[in-house]
Design goal:
8 strands; 184 residues; 5 helices
Length: 184
């Protein structure tokens, strides 16, 4: 089973938090390009900055036949998939057809986590919504480890933030989700 990661999972340190039984190596995060999707800032997660509860806005993907995005493909076990479902609890698990992968020949389809529930999709102007600056840093640090074409594919999301950015350390308000995101 292969997972497609398009946000914090492109950062090996962040991804490692969900893989408790093995140490991820750089080769485990295989750069791939997917056609028919675009990356957007609209996935809502309830997070805490110190004692303040806010709507954290994280990366999501949506279908867009004119677009293509880079991300990473990670081979995962059934057990790792179950932990990832906790980490990505507000995302729906979707299938990306192997034919959508532009730069690799695959034998199997990919799975990915995409926010599809209307109450978890942020609309521009919604109050108490912030993009955590630390999340931006995590994604940027991950992207830096890949070729220029991969990096360039992320430029738009790093230059056009549709919600205010909030500095500081955050945790997920759901303790099970927070543990899966931080410790696996």
């Amino acid at each position: 089973m292969y997972l497609f990661g398009f946000g914090s999972l492109v950062n090996i340190k962040s991804a490692q938090n969900s893989f408790k039984n093995r140490e991820l190596k750089k080769e485990d995060l295989i750069p791939i390009k997917i056609k028919g999707y675009k990356r957007i800032w609209n996935s809502i997660e309830s997070i805490c900055f110190e004692q303040e509860l806010v709507n954290g806005i994280f990366l999501n993907i949506k279908k867009d036949e004119k677009s293509s995005i880079f991300g990473v493909m990670i081979k995962i076990t059934e057990e790792e998939f179950e932990i990832l479902k906790l980490r990505e609890k507000n995302y729906s698990c979707i299938t990306i057809k192997k034919e959508s992968v532009i730069n690799q020949k695959l034998d199997d389809d990919l799975i990915a986590f995409m926010t599809t529930k209307e109450d978890k999709i942020a609309k521009i102007g919604k109050e108490n919504c912030f993009i955590p600056s630390r999340y931006i840093e995590i994604v940027k640090e991950g992207v830096e480890n890949f070729p220029k074409e991969f990096q360039d594919n992320f430029n738009e999301i790093f230059s056009n933030f549709p919600f205010p950015i909030k500095d500081g350390i955050y945790t997920f308000s759901d303790p099970v989700q927070n543990k899966a995101a931080k410790k696996g």
